[in-house]
Design a protein that fits this description.
The protein is mainly alpha-helical and 112 residues long. It contains 5 helices and 2 strands. A two-stranded antiparallel ribbon has the order 1-2. The longest helix is centred in the C-terminal third of the chain and has 28 residues.
């Protein structure tokens, strides 16, 4: 699931490609808060299908943002965590989400 980036790509576009997808910023926040198992994330995000959730987690792992640890148990237990590299993204995601909430409120107040 490797993305093809080229030197001429705008750095902010590359950033947006990493975060583009359903609930990726929310997944990063949930994992940072310790909600790190698939079932927990699915319960926290009832509007996302299991297939889409798995796809988003796979993409974040492929981009080096998440670690995926499989424990040899029956049934298998899988946990996700932020990589050291992913930890550098967390403060940015937090600020983007903060700005998004402010913008939502602004737009909602304008349309009322």
């Amino acid at each position: 699931m490797e993305k093809n980036y080229v030197e001429s790509d705008c750095p902010s576009d590359v950033f947006m490609k990493v975060l583009k997808g359903k609930c990726k910023t929310t997944l990063i926040v949930l994992i940072k808060k310790g909600i790190n198992r698939f079932g927990e994330m699915k319960r926290a995000l009832p509007t996302i299908s299991e297939r889409m959730l798995a796809k988003q987690l796979d993409e974040l792992a492929a981009d080096g943002i998440l670690n995926r640890t499989v424990y040899p148990e029956v049934p298998p237990r899988v946990e996700y965590s932020l990589t050291e590299y992913g930890e550098t993204l967390y403060p940015i995601v937090k600020e983007i989400r903060h700005w998004g909430r402010i913008h939502q409120e602004k737009v909602l107040n304008i349309s009322v």
